[in-house]
Design a protein that fits this description.
Order of helices and strands of chain B: HHHHHHHHHH
Largest interface: A-B, 45 and 37 residues
Order of helices and strands of chain A: EEEHEEHEHHHHEHEE
Number of helices of chain B: 10
Helix content of chain B: over 70%
Number of strands of chain B: 0
Strand content of chain B: under 5%
Number of strands of chain A: 9
Radius of gyration of chain B: 21 Å
CATH class of the largest domain in chain A: Alpha Beta
Helix content of chain A: 25-40%
Number of helices of chain A: 7
Largest sheet of chain B: none
Structural class of chain A: alpha/beta
Shape of chain A: globular
CATH topology of the largest domain in chain A: Rossmann fold
Shape of chain B: elongated
Largest sheet of chain A: 5 strands, parallel
Distance between the termini of chain B: 38 Å
Number of domains of chain A: 2
CATH superfamily of the largest domain in chain A: P-loop containing nucleotide triphosphate hydrolases
Strand order of the largest sheet of chain A: 6-7-8-3-9
Oligomer: heterodimer
CATH architecture of the largest domain in chain A: 3-Layer(aba) Sandwich
Structural class of chain B: mainly alpha
């Protein structure tokens, strides 16, 4: 389904012959994906086509029915900790605790990745949450929750980003900022796999599209 | 250019070495305690349940000293079991619902360290207070004066077992919408050995007999669950989020 670029280097992340079955329905089968550094892969498809299932399999949260996912040519089940050091996955739930402030939430997420939690305060400025550092997250909006989660992207050192609908509830200015961050990231040698229903305002040649079709059997 | 820079980006990740098991453990423990203290009814609910159940028994049974002191160990321990069960749900449920559990499973740390931190936080908030309250409530039940030491010791060794075994059940049922009934069915039978040996130790103490045997068995249960439960919980969580 996906055309790999002609390069001799090994892919950062590769999926081999993936098959996923949900509720007795085959979402996709024998799917091969190669994500090289510098790639932005946009997974497209109608609702229920298996975009989220695919991203969860790639991140290691779900186990595929058949096939394997490899990081640097090694099966991610075998190198889990190594892989997760190099991965940032943001699901469609932001993972923000309402009982903690915006800054505490971000500081925890950064610390969990081994980054300095004191970076949180400055990073919140990058995502336009200046002045909300000490507000409890339960008092913030859905878009602001999403921003707290996305703020990790500004600090993370992980090269592989897997983002499930990162633009949900984000305003136009925020989307622009994210897109330029994506470009910076892939130019540094990272790779991004994301799902979104919006068209990315990035140069066409930078984006590789992977289309999943809705299958009825 | 991008290709050239890719390799160092992957291999140069050394910064994580500075984050040991210990600091990952403390990080999650501190977070869970912070959340709990901002949500005080979650802490108070199981403790109040424990106090109310125990104070109701003398009212229901009557103030006869012999009867009460005979059944006191059982009442205190059953109340402890049920109040733990009442509080188990919040161990993983809210993290599961808001997606932070996924983030923890995808963190570079071994999952059992994070799980152990969460269970420790749960015990500090539900098991530990019981150890301090139980002797006061035991007075209401006319617990035999020789039994207080045994009561405290069995609670100290036994309540962590309740949190550890309970965590396995919660991890297995966290993905199910109405997992409450299933959780009780899964967990309560596994609590029976603790209940039997704990009450038996307190009974022996009341007759001035040695109770080190029962205590040793509870200690053995404690150490085996402490070492094995975090791994069981990690696997169960992976299954639940699959």
């Amino acid at each position: 389904m996906h055309t790999t670029n002609e390069t001799t280097s090994t892919p950062l992340l590769s999926a081999k012959m993936l098959t996923c079955i949900r509720e007795d329905r085959i979402l996709f089968e024998a799917l091969n994906i190669n994500a090289y550094s510098g790639d932005i892969i946009q997974v497209e498809g109608p609702n229920g086509a298996g975009k989220t299932s695919l991203l969860r399999i790639l991140s290691g949260l779900s186990v595929p029915y058949d096939g394997s996912v490899c990081f640097n040519e090694k099966n991610i089940q075998k190198v889990r900790e190594d892989y997760h050091q190099n991965l940032l996955y943001l699901g469609h739930l932001p993972g923000v605790k309402g009982e903690m402030t915006a800054q505490e939430n971000l500081a925890f997420n950064l610390a969990l990745q081994g980054l300095n939690p004191s970076l949180a305060e400055n990073t919140l400025k990058d995502v336009n949450l200046l002045g909300f550092e000490d507000s409890l997250a339960s008092h913030l909006s859905a878009g602001q929750h999403r921003r707290i989660a996305l703020a990790q992207l500004w600090q993370t050192k992980a090269p592989i980003w897997i983002l499930d609908e990162p633009f949900t509830a984000i305003d136009k200015v925020g989307v622009k900022a994210l897109e330029s961050l994506f470009l910076t990231h892939v130019d540094r040698g990272g790779c991004i796999i994301l799902t979104t229903h919006q068209d990315l305002a990035l140069p066409k040649e930078r984006i590789k599209k992977l289309t999943l079709e809705y299958r009825f059997f | 250019m991008a290709q050239l820079m890719a390799q160092p980006m992957v291999n140069n990740i050394q910064y994580l070495n500075s984050l040991s098991y210990r600091s990952a453990f403390m990080l999650v423990l501190k977070r869970d305690l912070t959340i709990a203290f901002r949500h005080k009814d979650d802490i108070l609910n199981p403790i109040l349940f424990f106090v109310i159940v125990i104070t109701l028994f003398p009212l229901g049974i009557g103030p006869e000293i012999n009867t009460l002191s005979r059944i006191a160990p059982g009442i205190i321990w059953v109340a402890a079991l049920l109040s733990t069960l009442l509080s188990l749900d919040r161990l993983f449920k809210s993290d599961y619902n808001d997606g932070s559990l996924e983030q923890m499973l995808l963190s570079p740390h071994p999952i059992f360290v994070l799980v152990l931190a969460k269970i420790t936080a749960h015990w500090l908030l539900t098991g530990l207070p019981l150890i301090f309250i139980a002797p006061l409530l035991a007075v209401l039940l006319h617990l035999n004066e020789h039994s207080y030491g045994a009561l405290m010791l069995t609670l100290l060794l036994g309540t962590p077992i309740l949190s550890l075994i309970g965590a396995i059940g919660v991890a297995l049922t966290v993905g199910i919408k109405k997992g409450g009934v299933l959780l009780s069915l899964l967990i309560l039978p596994l609590y029976i050995p603790v209940l039997i040996f704990a009450t038996s130790a307190i009974d022996s103490a009341s007759m001035n007999l040695p109770f080190t045997g029962q205590l040793a068995i509870i200690a053995a249960l404690f150490f085996s669950t402490l070492t094995l439960a975090p791994f069981a919980v990690s696997s169960a969580l992976k299954v639940s989020t699959n």
